[in-house]
Amino acid sequence: xTKPNGIIDAVPSRAAIIIATKSRPGLVSxxxxxxxxxxxxxxxxIYSAHEDADIGARPDCTLPVEYVFGPPGISTQRNAALxxxxxxxxxxxxxxxxxxxxxxxxxxVLAIFERSDVVxxxxxxxxxxxxxxxxxxxxxxxxxxxxxxxxxxxxxxxSDLRENATLYxxxxxxxxxxxxxxxxxxxxxxxxWMEDLDLSIRLARTGKVxxxxxxxxxxxxxxxxxxxxxxxxxxxxxxxxxxYKKGTLSRAQAISSMIRPxxxxxxxxxxxxxxxxxxxxxxxxxxxxxxxxxxREDCRPEYAASL
Length: 307
Hints:
The termini are far apart. The chain is globular. It has nine helices and nine strands. The longest helix is centred in the C-terminal third of the chain and has 18 residues, at about 250-270. α7 (about 230-245) packs antiparallel against α8 (about 250-270) and α8 (about 250-270) runs antiparallel to α9 (about 280-295). By secondary structure, it is an alpha/beta fold.
């Protein structure tokens, strides 16, 4: 475990980190550098990509790193990585490829899992570029480093732990035992809109899903490699209804989850943000709505990949 001076213990934990990536090879070495600084060393890091170009040149790293290749899509890529885990792993951490984690992330999530009733956890995002124009890796790393330094200097406040939480896909962890019977839904293709909510609700049936302020990081929200507007807009309408049909969401929850993006895209399409394809999303919303009118009882979330 962590030494008083913060040096990484030579003995690895039983935690693995899985990162699904696409079209962002420049971030691989930056992320691995961040993971090397973890106060508790992960036993393995698995990068799950579609093709070799997603990774680029393999950077030097003191951690055991494995690269897995297969069909694209966050759910599919994460499931492919899960299949590569052995019995030596009991905690699985999922980071987005543009998430900058605190150096205490692995250490603290393992402490949370000392509670036997907790099956999954997610943390505080100090900056979420997915909701804005995004940020550079250096800017995100500086934000996280500042908060990490406060902990190192002894200015830490007591972590807040909330139950009945929803996992946020850019930074979340689950017990390996819980994921043996529950995996990511591969019908939620491409960006896998709402795959984290689907996983949260299914895991919550087996134990407690929590959010902790003691787990933090910055989500850069890089726009390259993201699902095009029309495809994402289609998923924004069809995926909630699909989750209702499979029993994850109630009818009211599904309808609410559909109305919010439809209303936002419709209103903001007149004066769209430079970093969001509002008109493309709106077009996808309307296509998804027409899809549901035609195939309400057998909606097709995977059709987004054909648009």
